[in-house]
Amino acid sequence: MKVAVAGCCHGALDKMYETLELLQRRHNVRPDLLLCCGDFQAVRNEADLRCMAVPAKYRHMQTFYRYYSGEKKAPVLTVFIGGNHEASNHLQELPYGGWVAPNIYYLGYAGVVRFRGVRIGGISGIFKSHDYRKGHFECPPYNQQTIRSAYHVRNIEVFKLKQLKRPIDIFMSHDWPRSIYHYGNKKQLLKMKSFFRQEVESNTLGSPAASELLQHLKPTYWFSAHLHVKFAAFMQHETNSKEELPKATKFLALDKCLPHRDFLQQIIDVEHDPNAGDSLEYDAEWIAVLKATNSLVNVTQSSWNMPEKNGLHAKWDYSVTEEAIKEVLEELNHDLKIPCNFTLTAACYDPSKPQKTMEPVHTINPQTTEFCAQFGLTDINDRIQQAKEEASGRGEYEEEEEEEMDSTGSAEEPSEYNTDNSGLSSFNPDEIMLDEEGGDEDLSTCSVDPSPDHPPDFSTSFSDIRIMPDSMAVSSDDAMDSNNEELEKSAGSKQVEEKSSTERPLKRIGGDENGNGGIKKIKRRNQAIYAAEDEDKTD
């Protein structure tokens, strides 16, 4: 079957689907499935916009609401994960996944589904070490901290995915797995994105959690987005024994979705079960894992570690047996079809009656209620509500009022790295800085194939095969420890940083026209991403 893969669509669903329809007319190619790797922006109304972590001036309604209301229907089954620019209150309603509109399915915080026998997994959000060990405690209305932490990856989701034993065909993450750039045309990547160099050379670009999953799951395909550059790589995995067959992963990072982007290079042919139906299906092993790990659900801000074989936990292996998988199949009468039970849970945007003062509320979605009841799982949002009520009863909880984000970018991610850029030191990859005037890079056209000698066709675009050495393998816990040490060290220089904050916006060293090594004003990468929408309209 043909699978189309898209990067960050930023809510421009009309443009994305029109491009696919144009592809069908011009090339007679019609995908059976569309995958989107985050920053989907399922914004239903003005309240949802307030829950999206972008500066106020970049909050645009876009076109998702038309699909939510039923005015339009996605012409192809669409499966997506969350990124770091989402209506977090909407996606939070579906922690285990669900329909956000007819024919548009969200995988949840982490999830695995099947389509025509093809096993598709994904993890939503981006990695941030300071929130990684916390539970999912956030709920709307968000404040300046929780509006960002709501989309940060948690260790429990990684732990659940690591319990899987059966092969994964396709996996999606929003941010790149750390180290994946060593398996493609790194030279060309750095030529297109020179400001990645320090992170690449220090092996800190990307998510250590995603890298850990890549090494464990070894999927046939792995797709990511986030950095707005197309990049392909091919990773040959090490085998654990002589009997184990070698496995390899084809990695592709997608540029953001644009109306003029040719999807022809982002459509892959995937082997499927010709006898399977055309419905999206639950994955029996994943459901069994959810049931097995249900006792680990945490809705507090307290940091905690997942069970591991270190003498501190009575149980650390939560992988499931064939018998447990069989029980799930019997519970479902061997009918794994995901019910089409989409339900409106919020008022839909009406262009003729704008409601700019609409406030977000914490909603329990009927889809999640039904899913949890069917499989005996904890409804995370219900647990959060209970925790709030219990704390309020003890006089320990006072609801925080949402602070309006200003247009200067206060909703941007605080860097975990040293912010002293006097020597072009490392920046958080999620906050890459660009020239105020746009710099010499065009984010809408950056594309890095694995080798300039290879054609851009995805099936042949992997330049060479490399095996990750042990020294390059990154554990998310190890990376977190080192990052936390770095944060502790930076705490001592907090006063210095506060003193230098008056020098914002941040600047990067660069020679001025007089050759005096002057500095150029730069702005946050995310602002450049959204500003590029205006350029798109003129294409």
Automatic annotation (TrEMBL):
GO biological process, one term: mRNA splicing, via spliceosome
Gene3D superfamilies: 3.60.21.10
Stretches assigned to coiled coil: none
SUPFAM superfamilies on file: Metallo-dependent phosphatases
Family: Belongs to the lariat debranching enzyme family.
Bias-annotated ranges (Basic and acidic residues): 387-396, 486-511
A Gene Ontology cellular-component term: nucleus
Location of the Lariat debranching enzyme C-terminal domain: 235-381
Record's compositionally biased regions (Polar residues): 416-428
Protein name from the UniProt record: DBR1 enzyme
Compositional bias of kind Acidic residues: 397-406, 432-443
Names of the cofactor(s): Mn(2+); Zn(2+); Fe(2+)
Ranges for region Disordered: 387-539
Entry's localization field: Nucleus
Gene Ontology MF: a single term: metal ion binding
PANTHER family noted in UniProt: LARIAT DEBRANCHING ENZYME, RNA LARIAT DEBRANCHING ENZYME
UniProt entry keywords in alphabetical sequence: Hydrolase, Iron, Manganese, Metal-binding, mRNA processing, Nucleus, Zinc
InterPro entries in the record: Calcineurin-like_PHP (IPR004843), DBR1_C (IPR007708), Dbr1_N (IPR041816), Metallo-depent_PP-like (IPR029052)
